[in-house]
Amino acid sequence: MDPESKGDNGADARARGVAETITSGAERYLGGRVGKPLPFAPVALRLARVQRQLQVKHLLFAGVGCAVVAGVVGFWARPRLEGHEPQTLTYTVDGDAPPQGGSIAAEISAEPVLSFSDGTRVQLAPHAHARVVDLNRHGARIALAEGKANVEVAHRPGAQWFFEAGPFLVTVHGTAFSLGWNARSARLEVQMRSGVVSVTGPVSGGEIVLRGGQTLSLSLHEDETPKPATDRQGPALEPASSAAVTTQTNGPGDMAARTSGKAPSGLDWTAKLADGQAAAIVADAKRRGIADVLTASGSEDIAALADAARFERNEGLARRALLAQRHRFPGTGRAAEASFLLGRIDDRSDVSSTRALAWYDRYLSEAPAGAYVSEALGRKMMVLERSGREAEATRIARDYLQRFPGGTYSHAAQALVHVP
C-alpha cells in the first residue's frame, strides 16, 4: 500500500460507495451483472491529494493576503506616524554634503548655495563666510561672519530661522531678503524683497521691523553719518549707533498696496504674516472680535496674530495673544516661545524688568534647548546689568560666553567679564 494512502480510508470508502452505486444502477439497466466494481483507491488517493493541495493554497493565499494588507497599512500609517515626530532639517552645499562644523567660506569666483530640506535657500556671495550654528526640525541659526547672503526662507507653520551678523540678530518670519555684514566697518545691511524680519542687537527698545521693499543700513561707528531715513520702523537707536530705514516702491506689489483695502476673509494668518500683512491681520482680528479669535483660533494663527501685533506696536494685543497661547496650548513649543516674547515686551522698561526676568527664566526652564535660548540668556544678562545687578549679570555673562562664544551678545558679555 502506498504510504501516502494511509489516513485516506474515509476517501477510499466514499469512492467505493460511489463505485457500488454506479455498478448497481448499470446492472438494473442492463438486466445482468456487470462484475466486480473497479478499484477506486487510486482515484480516492488523487482526490485526497488534491484536497490537501487546495488547503495548502488557501493557507498560502491567506498568508500573502495578510502580508499585503499589513504592507498597505504600514505604507499608509508611516507618513502619519512620522508626522508626529518631525525630523531635523538637513542641507547640502551645492548639492554635496555640508562640511564638518557647518562652516562655509565662499571663494573669489564662487557663490555656494545652501539648500535645506524644507525648501529654504541661502546663497553666499563671493568672499562671504558663514556657519550653520544650529539645525533642528523648525529651522536653523546661521552666523554670517563676513560678506553678503541672499536668503529665501520657505513659508512653513512653526518655522524658526535666525541669522546672526556681528552683534545683530535677524529673526525671519518667512521671507526673501539679502543680508550683509562688514566686520571692519561694523556695518549691517538688510534689503527686503518680501515678507517680514525683525532686527535686534545693540539698539534700544528691542527690535527694528522691516517689511517687503525696505532697506536697513546700520553702523556701530560713532563718526559715521547716517543715511536719510524716509520710513522709520522700530525704536530709536543708541547714541553710539546710526541707522537708516528706507522704503522702495515696487509697483503693484508694494507693501502699502498689500496692506490696504478690505481685510482678508479667511484666517491663514501665517501666510499673510510672511507676506508682510501685519496690519491686515490685526484689522481682521478686530473685525472678528479679539475675544472670539483668541478662544477659537488655532495655535499657529494665534502666534501669527501675536507677531503681527508686536510689529504694529500694539503691545496690549500682543500680550493678550501670547497669554492665550500659554493658557490654551500649555506644554507646547509655542507656549514656551510665548514666555520669551512676553519677556521681550516687558524688558523695554525698568519698571517691568522683574517681570521680564521671570518670563526669561520660565522660557529657559521650559525650553532648555529651544531656538531662543541664546537670545533669552543674553537679554537676561542685559536686564540684570541695566537694573544694577552687576554680579548676577557677570555670572550670566560667563555662562553665555561658555555656551555661545560667538553669539549675538558675546561682545556685551566680554565687556562684563572684562575679557580683552
Summarize the structure.
With 420 residues, the chain is of the alpha+beta class. Helix content is 44%, strand content 20%. Strands 1, 2, 3, 4, 5, 6, 7, 8, 9, 10, 11, 12, 13 and 14 form a 14-stranded mixed β-sheet that branches.
Annotation keywords:
single chain; 420 residues; Jelly Rolls; Serine Threonine Protein Phosphatase 5, Tetratricopeptide repeat
Q: What structural class do helix, strand and pairing data support?
A: alpha+beta
CATH-derived architecture of the largest domain: Sandwich
Overall pLDDT confidence: 75
Can you identify the CATH class of the largest domain? Mainly Beta
Q: Would you write up a description of this structure?
A:
The chain is α+β, with helices and mostly antiparallel strands and 420 residues long. It has three domains: 3-83, no CATH class; 94-252, Jelly Rolls (Sandwich), CATH 2.60.120; 261-416, Alpha Horseshoe (Serine Threonine Protein Phosphatase 5, Tetratricopeptide repeat), CATH 1.25.40.10. It contains 13 helices and 14 strands. Strands 1, 2, 3, 4, 5, 6, 7, 8, 9, 10, 11, 12, 13 and 14 form a 14-stranded mixed beta sheet that branches. It is globular, with a radius of gyration of 36 Å. The termini are far apart.
